[in-house]
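Example record used in the benchmark description.
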Amino acid sequence: NKDKAYDPHNTDSSTYQINRQDTITMAEDIITYLDARDKDSIKALFAPQIANDYDLDAQIDKIFEIYDGTSISYEIGTSGEKSKHIKDGKYLYLRFDCRIKNIQTDNDKIFCISIIRCLVNDDNPDNIGLNKIYLKNADGVNLAPVGEVSEDEFFQWEY
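Model output (structure tokens):
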């Protein structure tokens, strides 16, 4: 229910609430797409630059290998601003994150997922969209990344 006045550059609380709710909705959509093994819908959420720079197909295949059940229940954890740059009362750069915890699957596994999405990047508009999905185990240990991942990060993952 965004009206014409919505602009993610705005720093007011109503814009914050829309950005936060949209981020939670995206996280819930990711669970739906994981459950359905819907790779194309997951890929469509990603920013054009991320889709271009990383092998999303291979990364998503890896997540599907690990997340091999269907969710029965989950809890939305924290969601809010992850990183930002404000000038003259407007965002020049803004990323939100969201955590989903206690994702219980029908094969008795428990996962957590964190996502990071970019809402504003005036220097690089191709970065707007989903930047990263982290699949983690119940203890918060990273199992597999999708999207933006550095070489250093890549070698920390437990395969």
